[in-house]
Amino acid sequence: MKVAVLRFPGTNCEFDTQYAFEKLGHETELVWHESDTLPSDIDMVVVPGGFSYGDYLRSGAIARFSPVMKAVTKYANEGGKVLGICNGFQILTEAGLLPGALKRNNNLHFISKHQTLRVENTDNAFLNQCETGEVLNIPIAHADGNYYIDDEGLEKLEANGQILVRYCDENGNRVVVNGSVTSIAGVCNEKKNVFGLMPHPERALESILGSEDGMKMLKGFGA
Amino acid sequence: MTAIVNVFLKEGVLDPQGKATHHALDSLGFEGVKDVRIGKQIVLQLDTDDKAKAEAEVKEMCETLLANTVIEDYNIEIK
After folding, report:
1. Hey, are the CB atoms on A179 and B71 less than 8 Å from each other?
2. Got the DSSP string for A154-176?
3. CA of B14, closest CA in chain A: separation in Å?
4. CB–CB contact A106 B66 (8 Å)
5. What is the pLDDT of residues B17-69, one digit of tens each?
6. To 10 degrees, the CA torsion angle through A76, A82, A88, A92?
7. Which of A113, A123, A187, B3 has its CA 20 to 30 A from that of A86?
8. What are phi and psi of A57, to 5 degrees?
9. Measured between beta carbons, which residues in chain B are less than 8 angstroms from residue A105?
10. Chains A–B, number of C-beta pairs less than 8 Å apart
11. Prediction pTM value
12. pLDDT value of position A223
């Protein structure tokens, strides 16, 4: 599999993301935000974490108008797989490729720690190596991770199985981490080819660094 | 012309900054504050004297970039 990893001014997780997919045996290519095309031989696009455009105006608000995002939107609309991690999730919601929005954490803090997540749905290309109800340990690091969607939107997410992961305790019970609606940490679109989550699976690749659960998550894409 | 755009979180969307500031005002003894909402103000200098045109353009700017209408409302004042 070949993975395009996007790079905006202020992106800082692109190399970790490349490392993760290469560790899984995939080929990767960095794509600069000014490019108006994606490499023709790719199997998926990852919008990595960081602080694109310094989070000015709103996180992801300016990056979504980069030339490369037009190509990503076209790729996604044609059924291509797209994953947004952290700032990448924010960019995909701003671009309208994922429902909802991410606002400032309720406690106004930048939260950086390992966090347990409950797998909510495995009927998708991302979490097919996990089990529903499984608890994963994945780091989070964000100030604007407070997922918001209105009640009608939430019902739709639930009905379509679009909620991927929720913040939980070690027993899988929901916990409030940043104020997200029903503790949502990640969602996908209705067609289940665009995925976004605030936690960083690419930072959980080896047990010596606290967790290798991220491998399990990212493995799904190549399965 | 000058356009002043105010962007606020929608009613019903919790404003954590407003809430923290409200709490701080209470702690300082300022009584009688019922609610605090924090937004941002964007001031644009426009190269036009046509108020209607300016308003239409700024509205489009708000819908496209300046506000995220999933969570935010905005108002526009043209001077």
Report:
1. no
2. HHHHHHHT-EEEEEB-TTS-B--
3. 8
4. no
5. 999 999 999 999 999 999 999 999 999 999 999 999 999 999 999 999 999 99
6. 30
7. A123
8. 70, -70
9. 16
10. 33
11. 0.95
12. 77
Count the alpha carbons within 13 Å of A149 in the hemisphere toward its beta carbon: 24
Range list of β-strands (E), A33-177: 44-47, 81-85, 101-103, 111-119, 135-142, 146-148, 163-167
A2-222 sits in which CATH class? alpha beta
Q: Which of A140, A155, A157, A60 is nearest to A102 (CA)?
A: A60
Cβ–Cβ below 8 Å for A179 and B14: yes
Which ipTM score applies to this complex?
Answer: 0.86
Tokens of B60: 């489009």
**Among candidates B12, B64, B17, which has minimal Cα distance to B40?**
B17
Q: Of B16, B17, B71, which is closest to A101 when you measure between CB atoms? A: B71
The residues of A annotated as belonging to the active site are: 86, 200, 202
- Using the beta-carbon criterion (under 8 Å), do A100 and B70 form an inter-chain contact? yes
Q: Give residue B17's domain range.
A: 2-78
- CATH assignment at residue B74: 3.30.1280.10
